[in-house]
Amino acid sequence: GVRLFARGRAGYHLTEEGAGLVAALRPVQQRLAGIERGFGNDGAGSEARVQLAAPAAFASYFLAPRLRQLQIEQPGLVVELSTTRGVPPTALSNLDAALCYGVPAQGDMLTRKLSEIGYGLYGAAELLARRGRTASDIAKLPLIGFAHDEPASGPAEWMANQCAAGGNVVFRSSDPSCRLAAVQSALGFACLPCFMADQLPGLTRVAGPDAVGHQELWLVTHRQAREVARIRLLVDSVVALVRSRRERLRAAG
Question: What average pLDDT score do residues 173-197 get?
Fold first, then answer.
């Protein structure tokens, strides 16, 4: 027979054959989880609970403020919203759907591009008054960078180029809200999603998406999502919400 486990000093571990079997069975587990979700939460009179993941800034500054309208339109639909860094998932596991920046490279899931998210370089008014806001001087400004392990994107590449050109990096963070707080304290200038930063008083956009770039917003669902009423309601509502505000999210103009 084929050995699936081997014993070592630290205990048992999967053999190469065992790891291959686990990988082969993962799609089956995902499908069974989807069936369980469908039967377990779609019955008459039950709470229509849906689990959605989204990038942290998008969840806090775009989705959450608009969930009231969704609740009015779909009473009884309860959204459990968890936040992520926006990295495309390889599997949804217990989630019903996920919003992410970019399309997953693998996984048995349905994907749909919803919009592009415009980014800009922002600074606090008092810091701009001291430093000026000439685009040619960006590399000389105190910069708040992305984390070193930031997933590849247009805005992250743009900021890396500014840093390489002699920019003075004073702080880094993987969390947009953390970068925002640092900007508001006049610590430096940071790349932020325009839909978040444009609505906040005291911030000025120094450079826009034409220079800084965009991230693609994708919706990821299980293949059987359309067969489950509560997930279909969520997906249709999120798609309509994002597409109705696509130009704002792109920060065109």
Answer: 95
Percent of the chain at pLDDT exceeding 70: 80
For the chain, the domains span 1-41, 118-212
| Pairwise pLDDT comparison (39 vs 75), residue with the higher score | 75
**Identity of residue 34:** G
Whether domain 118-212 has CATH 3.40.190.10: the reply is yes
Question: What b/e sequence results for 102-115 when a residue is b if at least 16 CB atoms lie within 10 Å of its CB, and e otherwise?
Answer: bebeeeebeeeebb
DSSP 125: H
Q: Classify residue 62 as left (phi > 0), alpha (psi -120 to 50) or beta.
A: alpha
Q: In the structure encoding, which two tokens stand for residue 163, read together?
A: 């840093």
CA–CA separation, 177 and 162 (whole Å) = 21
Q: What is the pLDDT of residues 122-131, one digit of tens each?
A: 999 888 888 7
CA-to-CA distance for 148 and 171, rounded, in angstroms? 11
**Cβ atoms within 10 Å, residue 231:** 25
- In sequence order, the 6+-apart residues with CB closer than 8 A to the CB of 165 are 139
What is the band of 101 on the pLDDT scale with cuts at 50, 70, 90?
A: very high
